[in-house]
Sequence to fold (252 residues):
Amino acid sequence: MRLCSSLASGVAAAVVALASGAVGTPAVADSGAHQGPGCAPADSADFPVDTRIHAGPAAYRAGGGHRSWTIDLTNTTGDTCDDVHPVLVLVDGKRTLRARQIRLEFHDGTRWRPVAFEKTDRDEKIGVFGEGSDGTDANGGSGDFEGFTVGPGRTVTVKARLAFTADARPDHVVASAALVQRRGDDGDWVGESNDYPFDIVTGGSSRLPSATNQLAETGPDALLGLGATAGALLFVGGALVVGSRRIRATGR
Fold:
C-alpha cells in the first residue's frame, strides 16, 4: 500500500465488503505484490486524483426520498487511473446514525448501484462504491463493478443519491470521500475530498433546502469527516481494509 504523506497511519479500523460476503470473516492483510500499473507516484506526497463533492443538499428528511449530488474525480497526472473506488465516510455528531439507516446509490455510467455501509469501532459509517450488500446492482443485475477509469487530465463526474430511513434521528453529519485504486489484493490511496456537512431532519412538511455551497468549513468545532479516519487502505480477499489489518466490523 502506497500512502500519501498527508494521511495519518494507525487510525480507526474498519472493514467493508467489496466483492463478496467477506464482512465479519477474520482476515489478515499481507504485503502482496501490486498488480498492474498505478497512477500514484511512489515519491509524491500529492494525491493524483483531485476529488470534490459538490451540489449537495443541506438537509435530508428521515424517511424521505433520495436527494442527489455528485463527486468529481479529476486526474491530475499523465497516466490513466483505473479501478478507482470512492469510499464515503459519514461522521454524525450524536453518534446515533446506524449503517442500516443509510440508503446510498451511485451511477456507474450505465445503472444505479447500492452502497452497503459498515460501522467502525469509532462510529464512522463507511461505504465503498463497489457492490451492494446483496451482491447486485440497484436494478437487480450483476454486482460486478471494476471501478471508475479516469484518463490523463480528464474528469469523471459520479452521480450519487442519498436517503435515510424513517427511524433515523435528527443529527448533523459530515460526509467525505477517499479514493482507492485497487491493485490486485492491495491498493493505493489516490484521492481525498472536501467535507460535505448536512443535517438529518424529522417531521414537518416544510420544504428542504435544495443545496449548499458551503462545504469546506463549518467552524472550529466542525466534525471531522475523512480526516478522522485517514489511513492506509488495502484490498484483502475482496474486501477493503482500513489500516494494516482486517478489523472487526461492529455491526449495523
Summary: The mean pLDDT is 72. The CA atoms of residues 91 and 247 lie 18 Å apart. The two ends are 28 Å apart (CA to CA). The chain has one domain: 14-30+45-242.
